Structure prediction request, 693 residues.
Amino acid sequence: MEGYKVLKPLGDRVVLEVQKEEEQTVGGIVLASNAQEKPQTGKIVVVGDGKVLDNGEKLAPSVKTGDTVLFDKYAGTEVKYEEKAYLVVHEKDIVAIVD
Amino acid sequence: MEGYKVLKPLGDRVVLEVQKEEEQTVGGIVLASNAQEKPQTGKIVVVGDGKVLDNGEKLAPSVKTGDTVLFDKYAGTEVKYEEKAYLVVHEKDIVAIVD
Amino acid sequence: MEGYKVLKPLGDRVVLEVQKEEEQTVGGIVLASNAQEKPQTGKIVVVGDGKVLDNGEKLAPSVKTGDTVLFDKYAGTEVKYEEKAYLVVHEKDIVAIVD
Amino acid sequence: MEGYKVLKPLGDRVVLEVQKEEEQTVGGIVLASNAQEKPQTGKIVVVGDGKVLDNGEKLAPSVKTGDTVLFDKYAGTEVKYEEKAYLVVHEKDIVAIVD
Amino acid sequence: MEGYKVLKPLGDRVVLEVQKEEEQTVGGIVLASNAQEKPQTGKIVVVGDGKVLDNGEKLAPSVKTGDTVLFDKYAGTEVKYEEKAYLVVHEKDIVAIVD
Amino acid sequence: MEGYKVLKPLGDRVVLEVQKEEEQTVGGIVLASNAQEKPQTGKIVVVGDGKVLDNGEKLAPSVKTGDTVLFDKYAGTEVKYEEKAYLVVHEKDIVAIVD
Amino acid sequence: MEGYKVLKPLGDRVVLEVQKEEEQTVGGIVLASNAQEKPQTGKIVVVGDGKVLDNGEKLAPSVKTGDTVLFDKYAGTEVKYEEKAYLVVHEKDIVAIVD
Prediction:
């Protein structure tokens, strides 16, 4: 996805480059395959402007482009680009950053 | 839809010109056909005045006329004009702007 | 409904004169008959004082008497007057104004 | 109900004198008998002190004793007095005032 | 229940002395036996300190010890004392005060 | 539970020492055995710091260590210590204090 | 999990080292095996920055690295690292701290 900026997520959404299942060992963490709620890892390629609070202000996102993150597998809207899967998810569906 | 202004969406709604399925490659992005939650692209033709916040102020919309956007296929209210489908959707149902 | 004021809607409600199905072409817009969520057009005959916000203030309605509007068909409370159907709907159920 | 004050509704509730079905023509309005959500008319006999807002203040009711109103038939708590039905309903279930 | 103070309800709860069905004529009001939502009358014996608002302040209860009230029959937590039934209900489940 | 402090409940939670059914007569109150929503009595052994309000402040709990309380039987998380059952419940599930 | 910092939980989430069932006696507390809502104990290895309040401020977490806590067994997202199970849970799913 040369030029990740072709897709600008709205609000607190981010665009993720999903990691293939055989790659699901990041920073030494192996994700349990039999977990009730199966998490997945991905790399953030674009970040939205942040969630709009009740008073109209924007809350800066707590993740940034390049972060590898753990997210809930069933979250988000899938798009494809040159045979790679991308996912647009809400920041609240990101469980943790994997350093 | 000569003169898009015949339809003025209320609140945080926008009117979209829905793109036909064979056109669903915008800016290099091909939408996955087997995705759980099927997104669709469309071009914004009219934008409402924005969502009213709890304090009574209006929040300026983050999309504008002419933007091509990715939205959730099952969202919105459909209207037709000269054989073209238009959709009135809430801004929250717009996933991302496709530049 | 000579003298529309016989019915004063409360809060953010408005009274609509519903348009018959064969008339459902307003300003060049033809409403899709096979849409999942079937919209309908109507003409506003009376408007309430507006929604009360959390701080107790009233939010002025964004529609006015005489507006032709697109609304969700299943919304509202139906009343009849001299063989014509009227509908009392909440402003949030009005999708767009048709100019 | 000589002396309507025997029943003092709490909060945003009001006490209504329900009108018999054969009387359901008020101010020229005939209520549709086949409507999905059947409304009914009634005359307000007592009004509560009003809804308590989040900041603790009371919001003055927008209806008053003597008003004839249109309300949702399935709303409220029924009481009887000398063979007449009374209903205690929340102000939000009152659709419109019939002048 | 000599000494009603043995039970101190929390928040916006009150303790009611429930009236037997044959006594359900209070102040001339007879409660409809075939009403969808069967109300019941009771006498308030203890009142809590009131509901805590979002800002942390307490909202004074709008009922007091000795009030005869109309409440929703299915509300509350039942306790017994010397063969009499008492009920602990939230103030929001009290429909009206019967003077 | 010598040294009740081994378990520190979070937020508006409290730790209760549950009373056996045959002991369910506290301060003269006998709990109805056929009540729809069966309450139970318990003695508070530890109290949390209180609920966090929307503005970030903590709301002081309205119960204290040593209070005998009436609570909803199906609420809470059960733990055992030396053959006695303890329960961690939210303050909102405590119906009343039994003096 | 040498270097617990490989996983940084977002918001009010924490990473827990789950304790095996035979170890479920912490500080003298034995967790009931037949409880409706089965709690489990774990040791906190990483804590997030805290929940974001409605006004945009962060609420400091009430638990810290090293705390042994009681949490709801069905909460959270499971990850594995060198044959040990870790769990990422929201602070609201932590019932109590076991000292």
Remarks:
- The domain at 4-98 of chain B is CATH 2.30.33.40 (10 Kd Chaperonin, Protein Cpn10; Chain O).
- The longest strand of chain B covers residues 39-47.
- Chains B and D do not touch (no CB pair under 8 Å).
- The CA atoms of residues 16 and 44 of chain B lie 4 Å apart.
